């Protein structure tokens, strides 16, 4: 799957300064949180963050844990195991690669559902729905080609 990056202007990415909207970091020399091939998470330089389209349809992805983000249908995310998936193809119950999570198999109390859960080492999709329109932003990331949204989900950046 080619590198498609299509973030709604209000979607937040993780930076050394904390979560910032992609619109707020566009045109700036900044770093974003990323994952290297060996699994190490760190900051790398964001390259050429900019608006690429105006008033495009977007999707809202809500995770079971409650966090949500808006992206274009073609934004590539990673399902568990680093399997690429377009946002439009996400299904409720898909497990997405995450920055922070419990170890696989760890049992924990889900306070919202008042039940015991077992970690899948990922964040699970709870809902995918149309979310109006937004200006779309894109960027590349030095060396890794990936970045984390503030919601903790690993996304693919555009190809360099």
Could you give the count of β-strands?
Answer: 14
- Major beta sheet, specifics? 6 strands, antiparallel
Q: Mean of the pLDDT scores?
A: 93
Helix/sheet category: mainly beta
- Helix coverage percent of residues? under 10%
Order of helices and strands: EEEHEEEEEEEEEEE
Distance between the termini: 14 Å
How many individual helices?
1
Strand content: over 45%
Sequence stretches where pLDDT stays below 50 over 5 or more residues: none
Shape: globular
Task: Describe the protein in words.
The chain is mainly β. It is 2% helix and 53% strand. It contains one helix and 14 strands; from the N terminus they run βββαβββββββββββ. The protein has one helix at 22-25, and strands at residues 7-8, 12-15, 18-21, 31-35, 41-63, 68-71, 76-79, 83-86, 95-96, 107-110, 115-118, 123-141, 146-148, 154-156. Strands 1, 4, 5, 6, 9 and 12 form a six-stranded antiparallel β-sheet that branches. Strands 2-3 form a two-stranded antiparallel sheet. Strands 7-8 form a two-stranded antiparallel sheet. The longest helix has 4 residues, at 22-25. The chain is globular.
List the helices and strands and how they pair.
Layout: E1 7-8, E2 12-15, E3 18-21, H1 22-25, E4 31-35, E5 41-63, E6 68-71, E7 76-79, E8 83-86, E9 95-96, E10 107-110, E11 115-118, E12 123-141, E13 146-148, E14 154-156
Antiparallel strand pairs: 1-12, 2-3, 4-5, 5-6, 5-12, 7-8, 9-12, 10-11, 13-14
